Every structure is written in C-alpha cells, then in structure tokens.
C-alpha cells in the first residue's frame, strides 16, 4: 500500500516538473527509478512546431546575405537554432513531434494514430509459443491481433533464426535505438493493434433490392439467407470453436503418442504430419526420422 | 523548362521525406484556406496538397490508374461508440501504400521515397527471397521484404562510419596490394554493418517522423518487414499515413472521380480485390482472391498440440 501511494506522489511530481520544463524549455527530466509508468509520463512531449518553439534572435551580422534578404530562410535559420529543434536534429528520443498536445505524428490529421510496434522480446515470446504448438488463431486471440500478423511475426522470427545460424551479424544497436524511438511494446498489455475482431462484410458490386409488404417481418437472419451468408452469431461461434477444438484434442479423444519406428535414414529438415480420415489417427514423421502415431480413441 | 523546387519554403508543400526543409514546412504548416473558393478551386487545392505527399514521383496518368472509386472500411464486432465515424475518404491513397518503394519508406528503411526507389533499382531488395528491381511492384498481403543491411545503414544513419585502427591498417595494405574496387566496396559495407551492430546514430529529424503504420510488421535486426494486410479505414481511425484531415482527401477524391472512365487497369484490379478481409478459415468464404493470401503456415484442421 505504501509503495502505491509513493508511486502516485512520484507521478504528480513528475507532471509538475514536466510542465515547468516545457515553459522554461529545459531538457528532459532526470531519470526516475521508481516505476516504468512514471518513466513514460516523465518524458515531456517536445513540440518543434514553429509556434511552439522558443524564439531565438540571431543578429543580422552573423547571417549570410542570402539568408538576410529572404524572410523565410531567416525564419528557418532561427527555427533550426532553437533548443528543441537541435534536440530533434540529434536525438533518438520518443516524445518529439509537431504538436504539444497530441501524440499523433501529424497534428493536422488526428485520426491517424498508428499503434506502437512490437519489440523483439515480445516477438520472440510469440514465436516460442508458436513453436511449442499454439495455433495462429489462439495466439492472435491471446495477443489481441489478427492471425495474419502472427504469421508475419513467425516469418520474421524464422529469418532472424536463419541469420543467427548462418552467422551473419544482426543489427542489434540499430534495433535497440529504433525500438526506443518508436516506443515499442515490451509487454502484452501494451498491444493495441485494433485488428483482433475483424469480420468481413460482404460487399456486392450491385445493390440488391427486395420488395416486401409493410407489415412483413424481415430480420437479419432472413437477410443473411438472402445473401447466402452465415449470421454474425454463427461467425463468432465458429471463430471461438476454431480456438477451443485445439484444446479438446489434448484430452480424452486421443490416446497418448506412441513411437512406431526409428528410421534415421528418413531424416529431413521438415516435419510431416498426416491425418487418417477414416480412423482419425494422426501420424508424424519427425526431423530425425522417427515415426509417431496418436490414435483416436474408438467410441463403441 | 525550369522545374519547381521540391522543398520550396514559399510553396510549403509537404513531401514524404526526412529532409530538414521538409521538416520546417511541416512545422510551419497551416491548412490552406478554402473559404471563398469555388468548388473546382477547393478540389484542385486539396489534390495539389495531398498528391505532393502521396506519390509525388508519379505522373498524374499513373496515379489515375491507381485510383479506385471503391473505398473500403472495417467495423469491429464490439459495439462501436455512438459518435464513431469510419473515415472512408482517407482511403483514397491506400492503393499507393502497397507499392514497394512507398512501403520501404514507411518501414523506415529509407529517408525518402526517392531514396527507396534508388535502393530497389540498384538491386538491394528482395521480396519473398527473390531479388526485385521493380519499384512499382504492388505488394500482396503476406509478402516478406528484405533489404541489404549495409544499404539501410547508409540511408538511415547520420554519419559515415569512422574506420577503426584494425580495419584502416587492412585498408592501407589492400590499397597498396590491389586497387580492387570490389575489395574497397566490401570494406565500406563491412564498416557500415559494424556501425549498425555496435553504434547506430539516426539521421537528423528521423525521430520526428518516426512511426510504423499498423499494416506493416518490421524487424530492424534483420532489415526486413512483412506487408501484413492492405490499409483499411476503421472507426475513428485511418491507417493510411497522411498529414491532411479527411475532408482534404474527400475533395481530392471528388477531383479524381471524374476520370474513372479513363482507367483500364482498374476493373481488373477491382475484380481481384472485391472482398475486403478474410478470416483464416476455409469454410468461411469461397470466391475471388481476397486481401489475405492463403496462409501456408498452419494446417486448417487442428492437431493435438503436443504432437
């Protein structure tokens, strides 16, 4: 309890100091070791918009004649010599932009606010879970994205692995700097891609009309039948079922795995899995050549 | 004929670049005043402003071939907020974002779209493992793009790499033995790579333009990215990066809709992309090829997980 109160006090102090910093154009606050949340809040948003920047007066003598004569060039030279712009010129920090109030990259378009990208750590976690056997749909639900993004993550992780195996040097400093600059998500809770519940809406090129008398009832189910499209409830149910059937395979319906044969001459770099449609058994040829089977329990 | 300057301070047109003049224009930018203008003037101004940021290296006839009159949006299953609107008009420049050179710039591997174009044309980029020299290539969802890391370092760092004592000794020896251009090139590439591994300094003003759009998944360690899906408009959110509000895109759309009869390649492309999104489920939709390619990664029927 004491630590929570302490954190709150720390946050208030940081906000006060951050506003003071903006007014007096001081550099960033000194680092705070108390919590990660207060760290993020403590980095004040610096704006390099022309109206937000602290004005710098440059005497006429120090300017070149071309700059002195042209008012816009002069404006630009003054803008470039202000402390905030000098920071942006050399800086790798996250909280520099064109507006003080919004975190959107383009302040004139507030509707464009891209999600924070994933860090390498998170991607590795997702890839580890995938390689242990979780399906794309299950991981997508867990990490609040679409299965296509999980597939992309898996592809990138495989490229990373192959680079490591070949010995080509991975650009670690570059990725560290970029992840800090982009404020990449380190934890699963920070992910906000907004594409986890994408459901397709069938669009026909031509509008379809149906003439009905006034009192005839017409529901979404009838409309779905007309379009030849399953209703929303069914879609949701099938999406959930795709995730849950994976778990149900683990328990009673299948017997434990059995090793059928060890054949080291059948080594390959691929794992082959087969499902026997008639019996429901699942066969697997592993990388080292051994053949496993998991038989479905027969229900009499 | 004298060309108008790209980063003019008086015209104040915004460009897809990290150039300092461009940054200054962004800092000073005020939306042009459309009051008292005729409808055509409004459309023209909107088109001029938005096209200077979206595909300025394209000719007008090339952009008219990219233009699609059908703009796609997406709504989520969770009940949307009452005042949420889907900004359909901001999808005007969405087909351009699948272009390889523009996607490369969005993934922050090039400081401008022109530089991305040069990187691709000089054979440094591979798409799905195959070298790609066409900068106009339209990426499909699921495509993996890899860029040569030394080239990325060149286009994205502040300073040239300082030669360490060991490499400079080797360099002098090599220069004395052979004046081989290839050896010199290999050494400079190595120096750039070392900079990426050990000490990377970003280009000026890169932090101000730093964002990754939601439809890309970028891995900086291996200098590769995946084009996850086409950008789409959502409730209170647009995925196409643009510095202009939706009303400017709406006016530009109204300018280009007159020319829809001129486009021959459009109908082919629209037939291909009729349905917006497809969930990874084979029972779900049978029909024309969708936004998402068939995922070959996981089998369609579930298997026991510890197998």
Automatic annotation (TrEMBL), chain A:
<keyword id="KW-0687">Ribonucleoprotein</keyword>
<dbReference type="Pfam" id="PF12298">
    <property type="entry name" value="Bot1p"/>
</dbReference>
<dbReference type="GO" id="GO:0005763">
    <property type="term" value="C:mitochondrial small ribosomal subunit"/>
</dbReference>
<protein>
    <submittedName>
        <fullName>Ribosomal protein subunit S35</fullName>
    </submittedName>
</protein>
<dbReference type="GO" id="GO:0003735">
    <property type="term" value="F:structural constituent of ribosome"/>
</dbReference>
<dbReference type="GO" id="GO:0032543">
    <property type="term" value="P:mitochondrial translation"/>
</dbReference>
<keyword id="KW-0689">Ribosomal protein</keyword>
<dbReference type="InterPro" id="IPR021036">
    <property type="entry name" value="Ribosomal_mS45"/>
</dbReference>
From TrEMBL, chain B:
<comment type="similarity">
    <text>Belongs to the universal ribosomal protein uS4 family.</text>
</comment>
<dbReference type="GO" id="GO:0019843">
    <property type="term" value="F:rRNA binding"/>
</dbReference>
<keyword id="KW-0694">RNA-binding</keyword>
<keyword id="KW-0699">rRNA-binding</keyword>
<dbReference type="GO" id="GO:1990904">
    <property type="term" value="C:ribonucleoprotein complex"/>
</dbReference>
<dbReference type="InterPro" id="IPR036986">
    <property type="entry name" value="S4_RNA-bd_sf"/>
</dbReference>
<keyword id="KW-0689">Ribosomal protein</keyword>
<keyword id="KW-0687">Ribonucleoprotein</keyword>
<protein>
    <submittedName>
        <fullName>Ribosomal protein subunit S4</fullName>
    </submittedName>
</protein>
<dbReference type="GO" id="GO:0005840">
    <property type="term" value="C:ribosome"/>
</dbReference>
<dbReference type="InterPro" id="IPR022801">
    <property type="entry name" value="Ribosomal_uS4"/>
</dbReference>
<dbReference type="InterPro" id="IPR002942">
    <property type="entry name" value="S4_RNA-bd"/>
</dbReference>
<feature type="compositionally biased region" description="Low complexity">
    <location>
        <begin position="158"/>
        <end position="169"/>
    </location>
</feature>
<feature type="domain" description="RNA-binding S4">
    <location>
        <begin position="98"/>
        <end position="161"/>
    </location>
</feature>
<dbReference type="Pfam" id="PF01479">
    <property type="entry name" value="S4"/>
</dbReference>
<feature type="region of interest" description="Disordered">
    <location>
        <begin position="158"/>
        <end position="181"/>
    </location>
</feature>
């Amino acid at each position: 309890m004491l630590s929570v109160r302490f954190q709150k006090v720390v946050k208030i102090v940081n906000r006060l100091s951050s506003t003071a910093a903006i007014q007096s154009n001081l550099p960033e606050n000194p680092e705070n070791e108390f919590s990660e949340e207060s760290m993020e809040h403590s980095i004040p948003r610096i704006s390099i918009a022309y109206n937000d920047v602290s004005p710098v007066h440059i005497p006429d003598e120090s300017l070149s004649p071309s700059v002195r004569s042209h008012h816009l060039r002069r404006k630009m030279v003054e803008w470039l010599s202000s402390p905030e712009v000098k920071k942006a010129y050399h800086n790798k920090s996250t909280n520099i932009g064109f507006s003080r109030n919004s975190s959107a990259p383009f302040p004139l378009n507030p509707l464009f606010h891209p999600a924070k990208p994933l860090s390498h750590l998170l991607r590795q976690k997702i890839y580890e879970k995938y390689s242990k056997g979780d399906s794309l749909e299950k991981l997508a639900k867990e990490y609040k994205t679409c299965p296509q993004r999980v597939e992309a993550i898996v592809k990138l992780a495989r490229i990373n692995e192959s680079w490591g195996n070949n010995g080509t040097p991975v650009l670690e400093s570059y990725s560290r700097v970029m992840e800090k600059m982009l404020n990449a998500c380190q934890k699963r809770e920070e992910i906000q891609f907004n594409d986890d519940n994408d459901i397709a809406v069938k669009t026909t090129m031509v509008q379809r009309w149906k003439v009905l008398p006034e009192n005839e009832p017409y529901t979404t189910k009838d409309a779905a039948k007309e379009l030849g499209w399953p209703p929303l409830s069914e879609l949701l149910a099938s999406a959930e079922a795709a995730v849950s059937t994976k778990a149900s395979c683990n328990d009673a319906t299948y017997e434990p795995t059995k090793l059928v044969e060890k054949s080291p001459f059948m080594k390959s770099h691929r794992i082959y899995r087969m499902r026997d449609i008639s019996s429901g058994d699942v066969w697997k040829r592993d990388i080292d050549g051994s053949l496993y089977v998991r038989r479905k329990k027969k229900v009499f | 004929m004298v060309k108008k300057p790209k980063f003019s301070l008086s015209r104040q047109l915004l460009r897809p670049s990290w150039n300092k003049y461009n940054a200054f224009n962004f800092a000073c930018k005020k939306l042009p005043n459309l009051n008292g203008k005729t409808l055509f003037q409004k459309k023209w101004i909107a088109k001029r402003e938005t096209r200077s940021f979206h595909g300025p290296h394209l000719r007008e006839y090339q952009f008219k071939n990219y233009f699609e009159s059908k703009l796609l949006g997406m709504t989520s299953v969770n009940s949307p907020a009452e005042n949420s609107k889907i900004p359909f008009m901001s999808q005007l420049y969405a087909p351009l974002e699948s272009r390889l050179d523009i996607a490369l710039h969005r993934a922050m591997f090039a400081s401008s779209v022109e530089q991305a174009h040069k990187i691709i044309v000089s054979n440094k980029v591979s798409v799905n493992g195959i070298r790609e020299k066409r900068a106009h290539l339209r990426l499909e969802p699921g495509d993996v793009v890899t860029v040569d890391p030394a080239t990325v370092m060149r286009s994205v760092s502040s300073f040239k790499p300082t030669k360490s004592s060991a490499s400079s000794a080797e360099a002098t020896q090599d220069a004395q033995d052979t004046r081989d251009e290839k050896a010199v090139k290999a050494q400079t590439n190595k120096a750039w790579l070392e900079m990426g591994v050990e000490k990377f300094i970003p280009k000026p003003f890169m932090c101000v333009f730093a964002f990754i759009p939601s439809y890309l998944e970028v891995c900086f360690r291996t200098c590769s990215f995946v084009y996850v899906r086409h950008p789409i408009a959502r409730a209170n959110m647009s995925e196409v990066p643009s510095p202009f509000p939706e009303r400017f895109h709406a006016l530009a759309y109204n300018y280009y809709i007159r020319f829809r009869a001129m486009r021959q390649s459009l109908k082919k492309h629209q037939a291909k992309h009729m349905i917006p999104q497809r969930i990874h489920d084979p029972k779900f939709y049978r029909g024309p090829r969708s936004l998402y390619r068939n995922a070959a990664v996981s089998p369609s029927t579930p298997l026991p997980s510890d197998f």
